[in-house]
Amino acid sequence: MKIVNSNEFRNEISEGVVLVDFFATWCGPCKMLGPVLEDLGKELEGKAKIIKVDIDQSGDLADEFRISSVPTMILFKDNKIVDTMVGFLPKERIKQVIESNL
């Protein structure tokens, strides 16, 4: 799964359905969510994209999207926010949110 920085972010979310996982390397629930998102990325390949943003490396993005706890997942569709999920969630719940926006 691609970790993007502030320079790449706008281009990554500009088109299609993109789930952005705002995470931190020191966050336990973030580490648990990683494999779940890896699996989802494979299942939804060609339909939706999943990328990650390290809030410690890209603090400007964390500030812009008012990330106050991690993990926070924001779902974009063609550069617009369509849903936000906070905390560790089951794979099926995340998949449902993504698929409802395809």
TrEMBL record:
InterPro entries: Thioredoxin, Thioredoxin-like_sf, Thioredoxin_CS, Thioredoxin_domain
Family stated for the protein in its record: Belongs to the thioredoxin family.
Site (Contributes to redox potential value): G28, P29
Keywords: Disulfide bond, Electron transport, Redox-active center, Transport
Keyword Transport: yes
Residues at the site labelled Deprotonates C-terminal active site Cys: D21
A Gene Ontology term for the protein's cellular component: cytosol
Any one biological process term the GO annotation gives: cell redox homeostasis
Domain Thioredoxin: 1-102
Database matches in NCBIfam families: thioredoxin
Disulphide connectivity of cysteines: C27-C30
GO MF annotation terms: protein-disulfide reductase activity
Pfam family membership, one: Thioredoxin
Active site, renumbered: C27 (nucleophile), C30 (nucleophile)
Record-given protein name: Thioredoxin
